[in-house]
Amino acid sequence: MPLTADEAFQRYQQELPRIEEAAEATKKHLIHCTTRKGINCEVTARAKEVSSFKTKIYRKRYTDPWKQITDKAGLRVVVPHRGLLDPVLEAIKGCLDIVRVEDARKDPGYVDHLRYPRLHVQAIMVGGLADPDGVPYECEIQLRTEAVDLWSRMSHRLLYKPGVEPPADVSRSLYRLIALVELFDLEVERGVEALTQHPDLAHGNRLLSMAEQRYRTFTDHPYSRDLSRDTIDVLSQTIDDDTTYGEQLLEFTEVFRERIERAYADYGPTSAHFLKHGRYLLASQPESLIIFERLHRARFRLKSAWQKSELPETMLSDMAQIWGTGL
Fold first, then answer.
1. Top-level CATH class of 5-147?
2. Domain residue spans in the chain?
3. Residue 99, H or E segment
4. Which of 90, 98, 246, 255 is deepest in the core (most CB within 10 A)?
């Protein structure tokens, strides 16, 4: 028998901690899956606010609100440009049990409308958690580019004020921005492709991209891209084939995940060591993962390349100390 609106609301409040737990576990699972595929993306997760759950019941006039509200948990996967939407969609299909896919990019009427194409996936969350009826918890996953995500968040604040209909010219101007969003996405995609083909930049860019993808599974702390470029120039001299190195780095970070987590906790940007002494700067950088891997597997080659560079030798010795190896 369907729950009433009040019963569904009460159940949601009781189940919210479990839903949040499942959403966070699913987020970590997606980050792991997309990292293994080498896909650069940002994954966020949240459970629906209690007030939003109540409001949706009232607004939609559901007859069976507990079952009909399928976005009790929502995840968002944001990629740099639209060329990565299909790869990340396939990655999601490969690592989650899919209920349905809503892909408005395939709609016949999409081409002559100024609206961004909806790309959502309804999926079973990981962890095996289920509601009191034994039904596994689901989540709604939104797939967007960075440009579309910016437009969507901005337009939602302006166009969807409760009880207020925005002026037609305001709505139209916001939807016209979709054309600029599409152009922006195309130019970003073109620029990324050009950089990957540039003979002088491709090697270092690929290495930094690999490192950053893995680094984001440990922390989302900001880092210095200038320092990364200087360091990657040196590290690239110790790696012969970056087409196979990605899998090698992934294997290393999985085998030594707990050790790396302790290293970041003890020496990373929020650690007492860093805040007190200002040392261990590279432990706050994504290329630290490559340094740890090279210290583990090719430390003499790394030392030789470092000594020929203009980087301070103390930077490398600090990292060797963190990893617990001699130079």
1. alpha beta
2. 5-147, 202-323
3. strand 98-103
4. 246
